Fold this sequence. Notes:
This protein has helices spanning 3-32, 40-59, 61-72, 79-97, 100-123, 126-147, 153-161, 167-189, 205-219, 255-273, 290-304, 308-321, 331-337, 355-371, 379-391, 417-436, 440-443, 449-458, 468-476, 482-495; strands spanning 226-230, 236-240, 243-248. It is mostly helical. The radius of gyration is 23 Å and the shape is globular. It starts with a helix and ends with a helix. Bound molecules: zinc ion. Zinc ion binds next to helix 10 and helix 11.
Amino acid sequence: MELKQALDRLAELQRKMYAYRAASSSLYLDGTTVAPKDTAEGRGVALGVLAGEQHKLFSDPQVGELLDFLWAHRDGLDRPVRRQVEELRRSYDQLRRIPADEYMEYAVLTNQAGDVWRRAKEASDFQLFRPVLEKLVAFNIKFAGYYDSAKAPYDALLNEYERGVDMAYLDKFFATLRERIVPLLHAVMEKEPPDDSFLRRRYPVDAQRKFSDYLMQVLGLDRSHCTIGETEHPYTLEFNNKDVRITTHYHEDNMDFSMYSVIHEGGHAKYELGIADELQYTCLAGGVSMGVHESQSRFYENLIGRSLPFIQAVFPKMKEFFPEQLAGVTAEQFYRAVNKAQPSLIRTEADELTYCLHVMVRYEIEKQLIGGTLAVKDVPETWNRLYKEYLGVDVPDDSQGCLQDSHWSGGSFGYFPSYALGSAYGAQMLRNMEQDMDVWGPVSKGDLSGVSAWLGEKVHRHGGLMEPADVVKNACGPFDPTVFADYLEKKYSQLYAL
Ligand code: ZN
């Protein structure tokens, strides 16, 4: 085989893989937005076929031969191509280790598990979900062995979401955060809470839609490359760097929910839209890891979106969209309201200070479940005990407890820590950004172009070209969780006059 020919085949393979992903994503987008209610069955059939074809395409021994050939010639490859070969070989070897029948059985299981979970959550009945969760845990323990049999199973799973991260790393990370956050939270709780009652007034959906359009403009999201839709749960779906979709959900009595969903998903979208052209339609055209992705979404949502300068910048417009609802409210009061810290039951509604404590509960449970020291039947009890211990709240039922998140039903074990890591990465990026440029002057005028350019240059454009830890290091030096703890301490000490 000639090198030139091999490179053409590599490009063709990746374009085909892109096409399958794009087709599956289109079906998902349709199913969650405009498709009529009782039409899931047909899409399920199509998705099953696409998954099978994708598996067949990539697990073909000829792909292995092609990758081996290119790897043998790696010294003659330019960096992006060499990296593509390296990544694809890793995925190929992994996929080949999973027996095809187990792979398909697992695909069917995760497909059904979503429905079972939804029903269990609605009925607030963990027993309904339990048998499925037992199977999912067993599969994941088995798959962890295929991923990397030299690692403890949970370490192997963590590595899939954030390469290089393991339990030793996370134990230290979470211990640092807990040590700093818990006393801070106690001090905050001693203080009078800010008034946030005006956030619960009636905010008509139409006005909220116009406000979303305005926010996208402030974020610098070009509507000819990024649209906003409405779904039950907000998400970001990327096709390529010229086509990204975000969604939100409007609650009339909870205006900040959509406001911060749009900014959060907008942060994910900025990342995908900022990935270099030369990486498009390859396996490197996407955010490098869940943790780095969350660092971008949570950067815009919290570090920028929940800052006083940003709120001061957008507040005059907000008053135009919601004149009655915000009558008599100042930007400063709004800032305090959206930063109100309060231990609560639901992770996705948690404030910036308590958020990581929610993640820690899930981390502890996953660690024990996959490590084999916790039986699935004991999950609710452990969940409730840890919520009491970490957050001081009593969990009234499983729907607001261990059934609240969809992740486990999708077979994702090891994903949750990415949320906390992302928050911490972001805080460190902000520190370095502040050293490089005037962040807050322009932000207080509603100009985020400097922030976007900095993140674009340091993080976005690289896509999957570097390891996640190297992307973080490249942007802001070796990772140090105390920077995030310092940030929280400073912010909440000022907010609550501690
Ligand atoms: Zn996110």
